[in-house]
Amino acid sequence: xxxxxxxxxxxxxxxxxxxxxxxxxxxxxxxxxxxxxxxxxxxxxxxxxxxxxxxxxxxxxxxxxxxxxxxxxxxxxxxxxxxxxxxxxxxxxxxxxxxxxxxxxxxxxxxxxx
Length: 114
Hints:
By secondary structure, the chain is mainly beta. It has one helix at 90-95; strands spanning 17-23, 32-34, 38-44, 46-51, 54-59, 63-66, 72-75, 82-88, 101-103, 111-112. The protein has one domain: Jelly Rolls, CATH 2.60.120.10. 5% of the residues lie in helices and 43% in strands. The mean pLDDT is 94.
């Protein structure tokens, strides 16, 4: 779910994009990277993110930051949904014409964060 203006579909704020992402039990997102930076807060459940090959385990109440242009994906091995709330600088990066996104392959885990 993305916070957007219903009529235009545009961002509801000029400098901040808000998003809720549900991860179904046992799921893992596709890897990708983008030029926006993101702050994630775990609203529900537990799971992990793989950021440039390093695994970061998280659970409800945790907050973590994803800098620009790092390959990342999220997943959960839990038996219940996980929900990530995110805030990014996407509207600003788009406004100045610097937003880019690139799909990536699933990452091998080479290390751990934390």
